[in-house]
């Protein structure tokens, strides 16, 4: 069963805001990038192009998912850099350069945790029903 599983890289980060910029129940933002944006992203915060969305957790918090290779990088960044990247991302997609970013984040660096070394697994095309029973 283990041989049939595939590892995935995902970093789940909770963004805590003093004052939410979204209406209650409408705190979902999905990000879609053009090929040009993907090709010209900065090295410093290019990881933000691997954020597929932010989703409301409650009235003041959003959950941000960073996927792929970028998740490994984000797990090594200081909180201030992650907050700056998340703020840049929100401002870009909402078109509001004055928007106040999160005051802090909560996360666990699963990809660098020596006891887990990862966060996600998914079935491969070789997985069978008995792998899960």
Describe this structure in words.
Strand 4 (51-58) and strand 5 (61-67) form a beta hairpin. The strands form two sheets. A five-stranded antiparallel sheet has the order 3-4-5-2-6. With 133 residues, the protein is α+β, with helices and mostly antiparallel strands. The protein is globular. The protein is built from three helices and seven strands. The termini are close together.
Helix content: 10-25%
In N-to-C order, the SSE pattern is: EEEHEEHHEE
Strand content: 25-35%
Quantity of strands, as a count: 7
Mean pLDDT: 86
Helices and strands: which structural class? alpha+beta
| Strand line-up across the major sheet | 3-4-5-2-6
Spans of at least 5 consecutive residues whose pLDDT stays below 50 are none
Discrete helix count: 3
Give the radius of gyration: 16 Å
Main sheet attributes: strand count, strand direction, barrel closure: 5 strands, antiparallel
What is the 3D shape? globular
Cα distance spanning the termini: 10 Å
Topology:
Elements: E1 5-8, E2 10-16, E3 28-30, H1 35-39, E4 51-58, E5 61-67, H2 69-74, H3 79-94, E6 104-107, E7 120-123
Antiparallel strand pairs: 1-7, 2-5, 2-6, 3-4, 4-5
Compact description:
Helices cover 20% and strands 28% of the residues.
Comma- or semicolon-separated keywords:
133 residues; alpha+beta; 3 helices; globular
């Amino acid at each position: 069963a283990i041989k049939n599983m595939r590892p995935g890289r995902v970093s789940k980060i909770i963004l805590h805001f003093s004052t939410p910029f979204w209406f209650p129940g409408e705190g979902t933002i999905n990000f879609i990038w053009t090929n040009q944006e993907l090709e010209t992203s900065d090295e410093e915060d290019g990881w933000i192009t691997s954020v597929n969305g932010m989703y409301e957790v409650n009235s003041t918090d959003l959950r941000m998912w960073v996927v792929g290779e970028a998740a490994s990088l984000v797990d090594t960044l200081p909180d201030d850099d992650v907050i700056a990247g998340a703020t840049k991302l929100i401002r870009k997609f909402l078109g509001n350069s004055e928007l106040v970013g999160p005051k802090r984040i909560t996360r666990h660096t699963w990809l660098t945790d020596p006891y887990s070394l990862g966060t996600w697994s998914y079935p491969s095309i070789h997985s069978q029903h008995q792998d899960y029973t």
